[in-house]
Design a protein that fits this description.
Number of strands: 0
Helix content: over 70%
Largest sheet: none
Radius of gyration: 17 Å
Strand content: under 5%
Order of helices and strands: HHHHH
Number of helices: 5
Length: about 160
């Protein structure tokens, strides 16, 4: 499996598991869902490892920061999953107030995501050369772009 195929598989699997994430963003999944999440995270880590070309010293410094970042991304993605579920629940009876609340939450999630990337950019810069930091952010961006594409294809427009 090449890197492009791995990214597509990873995002599809993540997207399928998104709907099963707990409603509260602070909760961790349990049971079979925990196994799925761990598998997706392991596959993503493998994909990142295969594409980063880290030296032993770089890897030793990079992986702890990566793990912290993934934990925070998980919470953000759980919040996104809740937003999608809220949208699905309200879709048939959407009104202006609900649409406003959903849109406000969407923009709040986006803002938190930007702040999270900015905070971790500095942490990654502290442990990797700039070219590898850029490569890592490219990998994350590609995964996110494919995920957003899949979500956009499956979420209907507001009536």
């Amino acid at each position: 499996m090449n890197a492009k195929q791995a990214i597509v598989w990873l995002v599809l699997a993540w997207g399928l598991s998104l709907a099963a994430l707990p409603a509260a963003a602070e909760e961790k999944p349990s049971g079979n869902m925990q196994i799925v999440v761990e598998k997706i995270r392991a596959d993503k880590k493998l994909l990142v490892a295969e594409n980063m070309g880290l030296s032993e010293a770089e890897a030793k410094a990079f992986w702890p920061v990566y793990a912290q970042y993934q934990d925070e991304l998980f919470l953000l993605r759980a919040r996104t999953a809740k937003l999608i579920q809220d949208y699905a629940d309200a879709y048939a009876s959407m009104n202006d107030a609900t649409a406003k609340n959903l849109l406000d939450e969407f923009l709040a999630i986006e803002e938190v995501g930007v702040k999270l990337r900015q905070a971790y950019l500095q942490k990654f810069r502290a442990v990797l050369p700039e070219t590898k930091v850029a490569r890592y952010f490219q990998i994350e961006n590609k995964i996110q772009a494919i995920l957003y594409y899949q979500l956009a294809a499956n979420i209907p427009l507001v009536k």
